[in-house]
Amino acid sequence: MTQLKRILLVEDSPNDVELILTALSDHHLANEVVVVRDGEEALDYMHRRGAFKLRIKGAPVVVFLDLKLPKVDGLEVLAQLKTDPDLRVVPVVVLTSSHEEPDLARCYELGTNAYVVKPINFHDFVDVIGQLGLFWAVLNQPPPLLGSVEAMQSVGETSE
User: What's the domain count of the chain?
Assistant: First the structure.
């Protein structure tokens, strides 16, 4: 039995959350999508602390990360994930409305796996999100750490 891979969506816009979940569903992705609304929640989720202390162990197969977030911005979340020895292998896709070259450059300096500008057109948005979901949750082979059940269960335990 193959277990569906979990996706972490870090997005503060309720409209974008709804669109992203609809797009993934329209592309027949049945993966569990965990939604957090700010950077602090994202870090709590990844480190299994606070409200997420008792969550199921294991890292998501991919993090879809907005840059403009309350509490802790997306750049700081990305920096913390990519400098944590236990979490740096988790793929992070920056999903943002920012076309700013400094944001793009900084994200790649910090180690993002992809930088995607959210399309404005509804149909393009749905198509792009569907393609991202299919690639990261179905087609992409995750790092060995994320592919092994035993290893997935230990992710985050050392940082508690």
Answer: 1
